[in-house]
Inverse folding.
């Protein structure tokens, strides 16, 4: 029991994933600043932001709505992100556990934060939050289908295995899946799925600060908003790590491989940041069409190519 709690709360769960995710958030903001010819924030700015919200800022509750649901939603977001992080990172870090890294379970766990944001937004009684929640629901319905098609393509490449441990082992023995034509296509589609899951531009319509003043986050402040930031930090780390585990052979923290593993994470985050800074926000109907038509089409092409060994 103590070992499981350590995995969940300390390493590689809540604390480890949150700290790494915070540093990656700083890296994302620093790259953004350089693109815009600014200096950017100091290294520990994400930690300052989190603790300021947690310890200093007042928590303001919505006058109309369900206060209990409103406060509980961020806690469940952190829980979902943390448990998904444990199941993703244990195989990537070479830690043996009773759970074999079933990627279907991970797929469902990764949806928890987005669903809790919707529930929290609808519990506020704020019409702008309801608009943001509606947009988030439409976005989920579009990119989750694409995401499951990407996982189906990877499962096919892995000989129908759904174990993350086995998928990583196969790539160590036979070469990474991302090196094939179908793997490259799956990588591209996966990147855009991550972009949508993290609600980054061009898929930030649920928050859209210039349109609906933050949307699903409009009523959050203080400690609840700190919990949301914590969940976002964790997701900002575990989603690129999941991609690397499925398509790039995972992470290796032995010798010189430590540097290579760090570079892989930084490269994926760099791609996300560059996409965010070189594209305008799309309308929600454009985002839905983009995933349901073009991304699904690419994912299906990758599955067909994988079937023929390409």
């Amino acid at each position: 029991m103590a070992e499981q709690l350590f995995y969940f709360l300390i390493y590689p769960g809540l604390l480890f994933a949150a700290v790494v995710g915070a540093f990656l958030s700083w890296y994302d903001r620093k790259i953004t600043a350089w693109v815009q010819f600014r200096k950017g924030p100091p290294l520990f700015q994400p930690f300052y932001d989190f603790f300021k919200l947690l310890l200093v800022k007042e928590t303001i509750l919505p006058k109309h709505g369900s206060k209990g649901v409103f406060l509980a939603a961020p806690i469940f977001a952190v829980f979902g992100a943390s448990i998904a992080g444990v199941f993703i990172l244990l195989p990537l870090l070479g830690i043996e556990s009773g759970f074999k890294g079933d990627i279907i379970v991970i797929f469902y766990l990764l949806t928890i934060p987005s669903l809790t944001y919707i529930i929290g937004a609808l519990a506020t009684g704020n019409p702008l939050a309801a608009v943001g929640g509606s947009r988030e629901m439409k976005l989920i319905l579009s990119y989750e289908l694409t995401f499951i098609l990407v996982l189906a393509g990877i499962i096919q490449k892995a000989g129908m295995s759904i174990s993350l441990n086995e998928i990583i082992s196969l790539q160590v023995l036979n070469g990474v899946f991302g090196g094939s034509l179908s793997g490259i296509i799956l990588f591209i589609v996966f990147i855009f799925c991550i972009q949508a899951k993290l609600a980054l531009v061009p898929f930030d319509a649920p928050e859209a600060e210039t349109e609906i003043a933050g949307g699903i986050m409009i009523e959050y402040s203080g400690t609840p908003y700190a919990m949301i930031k914590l969940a976002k930090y964790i997701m900002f780390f575990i989603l690129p790590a999941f991609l690397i585990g499925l398509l790039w052979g995972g992470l290796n923290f032995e010798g010189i491989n430590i540097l290579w593993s760090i570079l892989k994470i930084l490269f994926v985050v760099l791609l996300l940041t560059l996409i965010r800074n070189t594209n305008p926000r799309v309308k929600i109907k454009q985002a839905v069409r983009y995933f349901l038509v073009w991304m699904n089409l690419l994912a299906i092409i990758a599955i067909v190519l994988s079937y023929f060994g390409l």
Remarks:
- The radius of gyration is 19 Å.
- The chain has a mean pLDDT of 89.
- The longest helix spans residues 127-157.
